[in-house]
Every structure is written in C-alpha cells, then in structure tokens.
Amino acid sequence: MNYRIGIDVGGTHTDAVLLDSEYKVLAKTKSSTTQDVSSGIYAAMREVIEQAGVPREQITYAMLGTTHCTNAIVERKRLNEIAYIRIGAPASLAIKPLVGVPDDLKALLGKRVYIVRGGHEFDGREIVKLDEEELYRIANEIKGNVDSVAVAAVFSPVAKDHELRAGEILREVLGDEVPISLSYEIGSVGLLERENATILNASIVTVAKTTAYGFIDALKAEGVNARVFFGQNDGTLMSIEYAIKYPILTIGCGPTNSIRGASYLSGLANALVVDVGGTTTDIGVLVNSFPRESSLAVEIGGARTNFRMPDLISIGLGGGTIVRIKDDGQFTVGPDSVGYQLPQKGLAFGGDTLTTTDVVIALGKVNLGDPQKVAHLDKGLLEQIYSRIVEMAEEAIDKMKTSAEPVPVILVGGGSILFPDSLKGASQLIRPENFGVANAIGAAIAQISGQIDRVFSLDETGREQTLETAKRMAIDEAIAAGAEPETVEIVEFEDIPLSYLGNATRIRVKAAGTLAAPVEV
Predict the structure, then answer these.
(1) Do 138 and 146 touch, CB atoms closer than 8 A?
(2) What count of other Cβ atoms lies within 10 Å of the Cβ of residue 272?
(3) I need a surface site. Which of 26, 83, 170, 415 has the fewest CB within 10 A?
C-alpha cells in the first residue's frame, strides 16, 4: 500500500491530510498557520502521520501548497539579491524597467538594472544584433554580488533566441549555481508585465529552495522518505526542481488546491467553488475539473505581472471576520479578522471580540464553543448581521457567474459553516464530506501537468502541424515532470490568431496525467 500526504497553508490554518492509494482520507488535521509558516507545516505533518498510524516507509508522496513565496514578496523579506537585464535597446529605452512596481519593492529589486542592445520585432525579425560583449561585461560586474539573475527580451515569446544566448553567457561567467530566470518561460506577450513577473521569480528562488529542502528534511526526521511536490497555481503539481526554477508559480496555489479538492469531493467538473477560510472567502470557477484562468494582468505584492493566475474573487469574509456594532445599532462586517486567534478572541470561546462565527453560534446554526457566552446578544440584530453575511457571498457568486442562470455551487473550507443550505444563484449547494480540508485534499490528489504558452509562426509547417507540435510539447513537459505517460491527456487548449504578427498564432496547451508510480528499489 502506498500513502500520500497533502498539506495546504492558508492565512489562518494549515491543513493536512493523509490518503491511501485510493484517495481515501485516513487522517486530517488543522493547525494554526504560524508566523514563520514552516513550523505550522511541520506540526500538521507530524499530526496526520501519528493519527493515521501507517508504516512511514509506505508514505511515498508528499504534496505542499505553500504561501512562503507570496509572503516573501508581500512582506519584502528574504528576497534574493538580483540583477535584471532587459534586452531591448534602443527600442525600449523610453520606458525604464520595473514600471508598475511599488517604490519599496523597486528599491530592493532595482539595484542592478541593465538594458542591452537586442530584441525582436512583433513578427520575429531581429531589431538589432544582440550585444554579447556588453552581456559579458555585465556578467563579470555582477559576479559574486547576486544570488540570481532575471532576463527579458523584447517579444521573446515570439523569438526567444536572444534570451537563450544571454542565459548561456551568464552561466559561462557566473556558473550553474546562480539561477537564471528567462522571461519567455514565465510570462506572455507584454514586456513590462512579463519582466516584472520574471524579476519577482528571480527574487524568491532561495525562499523556494529553503522551503523545499526544509520540508524534505522534516519528512526524513519523521522517518518518511517521500517524493515531494509543490502545488502550482493551475491546480496541478510540480517537482522540487521545477518549483525552485519557477517559484512564482506557487503563488495562488491555495485557492486552486481548494477548487481541485472541491471537484474531487463533489464529483462535479463544472461549478462555482466558494472556499471560506478564517480571513477571506475565495470564489473560483471549475471548468472541466480545473480552475478557470484569469485573462487579466495580476498584481503580486503591488507589482503588475502577466503570468498565469486563477480567476478569483476574494472578499474579506471568513470565520474570524470581526463584526462591529455601533451605539445606534448599525454594524459592519470585516474586512479585518482575528484569523488563527479565533479560539482565543471569539466571544463564544471566552474572548472579547465579536466574530461571524459567534453570530452563527448565537443563532444556533452551528454547535461550537459555549453558546451561553453569546446568549446576551440581540437576536434580531444578529439576524440582520447574518443576512448581510449571506448577502456578501451571494453578491460575489453573482459576479463570478457568466449568465443569470443558477449554477451548482460547492462550499468548502472550515469557514463555510457560516452559510445556510441554499444561496441565491445556486442551482444546488453542495457541502461535501471533508469540506474543511478540501484544500489539502486538492494538493494530495493533484495531477502532474505540462503547459505551453507560445507564439508560433504558421509559415514554416502550416496550421495543423503547428497545433500538433504544441500539443506534443505540452505532453512531453508533463511526462518530464513525472506523469505516467499512458495517463497524460490534453485538458486545456486555446488557439488565438495574432493578425498583427502576420501569419502567427498564440497557442496555450495544458496536458495533465497522474503521478508515475514510485520505482521499487
């Protein structure tokens, strides 16, 4: 028998599950998310292993959805010393790098910024020859002074040659131990947002590496020698090596884990998922069992980027959300929260702060805490507050729908106890078994994927051959990442003709498959 652990870090709780080979939940736990994140992860991991009582040597996989990288950017802590090289002179000199990045983050990441001659036109024609001599000069200047390097060239998603050559020069001078982030592998067309995403990626490589190896060491300390995977923000997994190379793809993986877990637990492939935590409610869309991707530029830590992210609405409503009642009977719900301190600060638990959880306890809708501690509250006013809580969720659901027709809604997350058994706009409301740890289950059952997002010229091989080539590339990526070849299939495909590039098209393909079985030694 093979077992797997799934762990997902939320703003309030770190959830963990241990599943058998048929994805049956054998143990689950919730522990408070700690300030350093890691100790909360290790505590949750130890708890599910002890609960399950399974042979440790038979735990073969461990999946982690983590906020380490997000926190590093948001808090401006533990970021790498980086250099950024834009390949785009003279065409892009009018606009300096790090546009749309807050000043405090720019001060940290903009210490070594260079613009060299090179880049391509929108149709793939070379603007000017790549200035290799200047690249060698820069590489020697930054040697010994940086932890990682980011490189972005004008229209590299159309023609990546200059970025690849720059990467070769940098590795030649700096050595293989200094990670190089190339923008064509991270963002899409749109230089300013793509270079921001690449710079952020380079800045969190060490955070990802420390997290990954810390998790592996913690597992080994428990006698578990499992293969470790990170959750990424399209609802699939990536290997440790891939996560260290592209750590920015871990950002937003929490909501996507919940969406994938909701799909698995409910058996639905198309629905809205309402994930209610201690601090926020995230609403996403299931399309063919995977999260719908946002088509808009996304801000990370205040920096505008264009790499893939799930399409979500987040509202400041969760189990720990603070309710304030004014002297005139008016009230506010959130957006601030007591978060993981709910068991200490909530009224029903002996604290001094009225929260949304206290409201549903006082109204007799859930059996938690000590109802006597909230029995003095005005029931009429509490009903009004509860109506507002429900209304906030219904408004967010309405915003995510693409038509006026009711759609299935899946409620997950520990905070989903706030809501009744029906909501406006929902054709059916499903609160599946183990809904409270859907995020950790989503991490544990996730597939391995490979994704291609490239601009192809159709002049050389023709349309049909180009589409098949793109699909094959995505399948090969998934297999290389660790998927069982026989199980890999195309789960997303998008073909967008780009008339302004001539006979060219942007192709987005995602292939996914189940994890290859561990090799018996």
Answers:
(1) no
(2) 24
(3) 26
Single pTM value for the model:
0.82
Task: Give every CB contact of residue 109 below 8 A, 6+ residues apart in sequence.
Answer: 79, 82, 84, 98, 101, 199, 200, 203
- Residue 520 pLDDT level (bands cut at 50, 70, 90): very low
Question: Is residue 444 within 8 Å of 48, Cβ to Cβ?
Answer: no
Going by C-alpha positions, the residue among 114, 56, 58 that lies closest to residue 85 is: 114
Alpha-carbon distance of 413 to 433, in angstroms, equals 11
| Cis bond before residue 497 (omega within 30° of 0) | no
Q: What is the pLDDT of residue 394?
A: 93
What is the percentage of the chain residues whose pLDDT exceeds 70?
A: 98
**Distance, CA of 90 to CA of 499 (rounded, Å):** 25
Nearest-angstrom CA–CA distance, 427 and 406: 5
Compute the mean pLDDT over every residue in the chain, rounded to the nearest whole number: 89
Check if the beta carbon of residue 354 is closer than 8 Å to that of residue 381.
no
13: three-class secondary structure by DSSP: strand
Q: 109, 93 in Cβ contact below 8 A?
A: no
- Between CA 389 and CA 98 the distance in angstroms is 39
Of the ranges 259-263, 314-318, 381-385, which one carries the lowest mean pLDDT score? 314-318
Distance (Å, whole) CA 366 – CA 431: 14
Whole-angstrom distance, CA of residue 164 vs CA of residue 210? 27
Residue by residue, DSSP assigns 154-182 as TTTTT--HHHHHHHHHHHHHH-TTS-EEE
Which of 84, 149, 147, 79 has its CA nearest to residue 110? Answer: 84
